[in-house]
Batch of 2 targets.
Target 1
Amino acid sequence: VYGSFPLQEEGEEPIDFIQTLTEIRGDLASKRGYLVVESAPPAFKAWFDCWGDVGPQIDIMAGLKRAFDPRRVLNPGRFVHHL
């Protein structure tokens, strides 16, 4: 399921929206699902973990990142948990 929500580039932390996303993420996790924010303004990313818990796949992702980008020059600081 994909959704799109308008976010302000600047301003106060969107506490209600973050709480809603956190609740949805928790509900999905109980059903072995995930909620990932694919695109958001930098200010929102500072308030909310856009990836969340990606589960055991993190080891596979980290291995691929090490294999194909050993010097970590591609998209620094933008991959899952900053691999």
Target 2
Amino acid sequence: MNDHPGETMLPDHAEVVIVGGGVMGASAAFHLARRGVNVVLLERESFFGQGSTGRCAGGIRHQFSTDINIELSIKSIAMLQRFQADTGQAIDLKLNGYLFLLSTPEQMERFRQNVARQHVHGIFSEIWSTDQIAARVPLLNLDGIIGGTYYSGDGIADPSGVVNGYIAAARASGVVALNNVEVTGITVNGGAIAAVQTSQGTIRTPTLVNAAGPWSAQIAGLAGIDLPVRPERQQILVTTPMPEIPADFPFIIDFQQRLYFHREGAGLLTGMSMIGQPATFAQNVDPDWTDQHMDCAMARLPVLETAGRLTEWAGLYEVTPDAHPIIGPLAEVRGFYVVSGFSGHGFMHGPIAGLLVSEQIVDGAAHTLDISSLRTERFVQGQLIEEFNVV
């Protein structure tokens, strides 16, 4: 989508101002507009979805270890399956499955527990032997792998298509969505949101939605709020065409190494998560990490040795202490809502997250799903909900 922010002036008032034009902000804008709310969506980049959403791997999966993440996936992926009907935008949805490769008895036991939990929610993932894995993906080198899990209803979708579909549909419903507008300040009067200052002027509003992803702590700081979200750099590489990769190639994750692969056009997308790195907003590619990543990738998938590098980029996860998001109002300032901290799972949970925050704003509480466990108060109350399946 080629946006021309100069064509629309910054309004001086809105019922809701959303900061951040990735999948969270776009989904929230779309769902609020469907409820008749007057919304202004602000994105500081020249295009929507250029931040974390535009730099992600595009994976969507049900295979999580906590009830809330499983339910977020169930509802969000269902929304993606009807996305084109709802918005008119194709998103290249491919449900070729997710295959987790496991290396230790401890991992196998934990994933058996996870599969049992997924079954309770109607997600019939499977425990696979190495023979089953080899039959499904014969290109893999399974040295060190003792088993895995697979679910055929997982897959990939196009992040740009999802964001642009939501933005176009939101605009058609009256949302003012602006690019190249940076939030520079937040006015709080009497403990409540009163206005948002931007590089293009001030907007009076009683309600602010912070959907700024890795930068959401900075936005919260403008209102004097300490938000426990930190940026974590990740890198992804896409190869030149690889005719050896079959069309039904699943999204593969070597869990021990946090190494992953999936088809991307005629080539292969691969990454290896940089979990535990120092917080950073830097999005430059680290060539040393590329070398380490590709050594591991070629060892696990030897056919990569014949591929060329088409492109490579770095992006940011928005990480919370328990790898679960924050969705909802903040007690410190009335009218301040957060939808952030998805810890690498934001694209897949973006559709439902936007709906849930719209319900909180319009109805006073989310009702499509109980998300009381995702309140920010959990961090000070010691009620963390740890996600094991973090990649």
